[in-house]
Amino acid sequence: MEQLKNTTLSPNLTVLLYGPPGTGKTSLTRGFAKKYGVPICVVESDRLVSPLLGDTIKNIRNVVELSSEISKERGAFVLFFDEIDAVGSERSNTHEVGEIKRAVISFLQVIDRVNYEGVPLAIFGATNHQHQLDSAIWRRFTFHFRFDFPDYNLRKQIIEGFLAKIKRAKIGVDNQIFTSLNEEYNRMQKIEKEIANKMGQKVTEFDDMILWNEISKKIKGEGLLKLTHGYSGSDIERGTKVALLKAISVELLTYDLFYDSLKLVGGTAIHVERQNTLATTRGFILKDEGNEKKHNRDNKPPEI
Ligand SMILES: Nc1ncnc2c1ncn2[C@@H]1O[C@H](COP(=O)(O)OP(=O)(O)OP(=O)(O)O)[C@@H](O)[C@H]1O
Ligand SMILES: [Mg+2]
Question: Which numbered atom of ligand 1 lies nearest the CA of 29?
Fold first, then answer.
């Protein structure tokens, strides 16, 4: 901030995180604040929205003004508007259109003032309804981070992370899980390399159907990574929790138990609208079309 002072560019940090549910937007923001030792104030945006005329605007102003005062007195902190679409889109809880428009405008104005006055605030916003977000809101955020469903590399890490947590609960984890996870992972990597060599460019799981088609063809049966294609980190967490509860009585998490639990919770991608995530679900949709039975769109989410 010291260095930026003379540039006349406002030194505050504004970040918009967007992407499908359960992919880590809220966690990353909280993790960011923790990592840099900066306090965080989470505004549950839906609570700003009031059915009483004028109250939404008042709430927005109050939150930002109070935050500005505190940050000027006590130093920088993160002001986090989680689910920012509640104030920034037409799908807001308020029914009166004029009120919504005024709320958006009011939000824009307070952000502008924070920017203009160089208030030491880091404003983060998160949404999984990015297509409903007012374009003027987008512009107020300097950085836009897109979140996607995790690819198989990241899914492996997430699965291993959660398995490590199960071990901490003093529940044995059958080695077969790690062995088959590693085997499946190595085979996927090999297929990815082969395709990249043939095409002369890197291919990823969600870019288009090439890699996933090839994987579906060459790897028979469903491994953990194949099963979790289209799962969010949060889906994997839910599956792990189900597995944990089932494993308590036997004190051992077996491959079948883990696999079945993950399968039971299902992935989020099939419930995300096509236009909502575009590139992110492209891989999934193509798979969906070729695999109607497994991912029937009319299917209700599994109940646990
Ligand atoms: N990339 C990831 N690595 C590890 N865990 C993850 C990841 N993404 C999500 N999770 C798990 O899922 C949980 C929920 O994630 P989080 O609440 O941050 O998602 P979100 O993107 O904010 O979702 P929403 O849009 O629904 O608010 C986290 O607490 C974490 O345990
Ligand atoms: Mg969130």
Answer: 18
Domain-embedded: residue 215: yes
Q: Which of 277, 272, 267 is nearest to 302 (CA)?
A: 267
> Residue 198 sits in which domain range?
152-290
What 3-state DSSP class applies to 199? Answer: helix
User: Last residue of a domain, which of 126, 146, 166?
Assistant: 146
Ligand 2 centroid to 6 CA: how many Å? 36
Nearest atom within ligand 1 for CA of residue 17: 21
Residues 210 and 261 in one domain: yes
Positions in the chain whose pLDDT score sits under 70: 1-2, 4-5, 8-11, 89-97, 273-304
Q: State if residue 23 touches ligand 1 by the CB under 6 angstroms criterion.
A: yes
> How do residues 160-193 score in pLDDT, each as one tens digit?
999 998 888 888 999 999 999 999 999 999 999 9
118 and 206 assigned to the same domain:
no
